[in-house]
Amino acid sequence: MSLSCIIVEDLQVAANYLRNCCEKSGQVEVRGHFSNVTDALSFLNSNTVDLIFLDVEMPGANGFELLDQIAFSPKVILTTAKQEYAYNAFQYNVSDYLMKPFTYQRFMEALQKIQPSKETISTNSASDHIYIKTDGKLIRLNNDSILYIESMGDYVKFVTIDGKKYITHNTIKNLEEKVSKQHFLKVHRSYIVNLHKIDDMRENLLFIKGNEIPVSKANKADVFRRLNIV
Amino acid sequence: MNNLKTSNAFVFNAEIDANYLNSLYGDDFVYLQEVFETVLVDYQSLTDNIEYSYSSGNLNALRSAVHKIKPVFGFVGLTAVQQQCQQFEQICGTVSSPDHLSGDFETLKNKIFHSKQLIEEEKKKLEIFNSNCS
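The joint structure predicted for all components is written out below.
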């Protein structure tokens, strides 16, 4: 098994089918099935997983509300067919949609999409710079030149102090482990910011050179700990 | 829609898309029996939810309830009913009240009721088929 997952799905036949696909693949360990967001959240408050198979329309809170409240950034595969969730899906770094019912082949295609990309960035977390692979070349970015990093689905955007934007195939989750902890902090599932570049903070927003960066409830305590508040 | 059978000599009801089921489960008729059983366990609460949403005049809840049962029909090969649910969902988005849906709702309700009988019959056939195979 290489991936741990949970299934958040209130339709029993769909959850059973999904579990069956996971077992058949031999690549995914199902650590739980939850039929509502509250129960899933309770599990995720004390456990982490690599992947969530997530239905959106469920009794009570919807699937995106779950993603708002967890403190880490698992991969997410939606098990819904609704087109109107496309914008939210982009915002939440959703890897794929599975329209119920889906074939095993389609399930495996979704799994392939979530394999972590490990070759697009080269860094040492103690280093003062990183290299990113973009437009077919490796570009050096000094830590001090980066304002923030934003998720764009399967890609991330580096925004630098000179106003340039560099897009590379990677994920916030992967970068969180690679960038300098001294400089950078994940403040939202879609954002890592350079702590040295924050101008001010109001409510749940950070301001960096005119850019508004949301801070999630789950990450707010970390932000306060890292800011040099006197 | 397929009229007949799939491999292993099991003959599905003409309303069931046998090729579609084959794409989901292959020749695993034991698992397919489990699927039919699971669907029947949840069926009543899913249909009750549809009835209640309609009778209470809650259009959003009605659309959501039909959306919820929709894939169930796919899991048992009733792809035409699944499509009918999809169309009903779309109609829900074009009206301001469930009162405007009475004709469409009755048609869907009858189809859902009929489908339950069909699923029960297929489940029994699968039980017999699988017991003969074991």
